[in-house]
Every structure is written in structure tokens, then in C-alpha cells.
Amino acid sequence: MKLPFAHFITSFTDKLSPNSTRRNNKLEGLKYLFWGGFNVLLSWILYFVTYHYIISKNNVEILPFLTISGHIFSFLLSFVITFFTGFVFNNFLVFNSAKSEPIYKKLFRYFLANMGSLLINYVLLKIFVEYFMFYPTPSQILCTFIITIYSFLMQKKFTFRK
């Protein structure tokens, strides 16, 4: 499942280094940075559009007894969408583990690793917005930077381990 642009980027980054282990680790890092950055940008756009234009900064009533603040709803919606795009990017383009084992096993491990990211992001977003009174969109961007290292290590060592 290679897209023309994705194939171009992957081919380009593959040519940056020979097959040594150290260089392959750097290459994975570069690919993760590129595709992860693309997925993060998509997440920020979804968050911004949802928060400012779809729900207009209002709380969202999910059920008569469950209301979610606008910044948390926007975060959860963008997370659900970019969860799947991130898995496709990491599985097929970054870690090249498409054929190593059944996809459902990797997807489950990816889900577990992302639940950790989700929990950390949720707690940090609540703290930044509700306690420190930071603006929601920059708070979400700050959360993303904090979680990136955790996420890379979990994907490399747990989800897409070789």
C-alpha cells in the first residue's frame, strides 16, 4: 500500500544511508519525524477546526448526563482520526513491519501504546487549560511535543518491534 508521494519520501530517506544498524536507526528516526510530523500536523488542524468552527468553543453534550468540554472533545475527535493514519504511516512507511506478523497484533499493541499517550495528553491538557488557564490550541501543541519521545520509544520498542 504505497502512495506515490509516500513512496518518493521513503525512497529518498532510504537512500540517505547504507544498511548499517546505526544508520538504519537514524533512518527510522527521520522517517518517524517526517510521517509523525505529518500526522501531528493533521491532528492540530483537526483540533483547531473542530474547536473553533465545528463546536465553536462550546461544551459538547454526549448524553443527557455527560458533557465534555470543547477542548477535550476536539482532542478526542482528532485522536480517533489520527490514530488510524498514524498506524498506517508507522506500519508501512516508518518501521517497515507490514509482513513481520499479523496486522491485528500490531494494531492491538499500537492501541495500548496510544492509550498511554492519550492518558498523558489528557492529563496535561486538563492541567494547562483548566489550571494554568493557557489557551487550548497552544496547550495541545505543547502536549504533543512532550509526548513525542514517549510515543517514538513505545512504537519502536513495543508496537513495531522486530
Automatic annotation (TrEMBL):
The chain crosses the membrane at residues 32-55, 75-95, 107-125, 131-153. Keywords: Membrane, Transmembrane, Transmembrane helix. It is found in: Membrane. It is a multi-pass membrane protein. Residues 31-160 form the GtrA/DPMS transmembrane domain. It comes from the Bacteria. Pfam families: GtrA_DPMS_TM. This is GtrA family protein. It comes from Sphingobacterium bambusae.
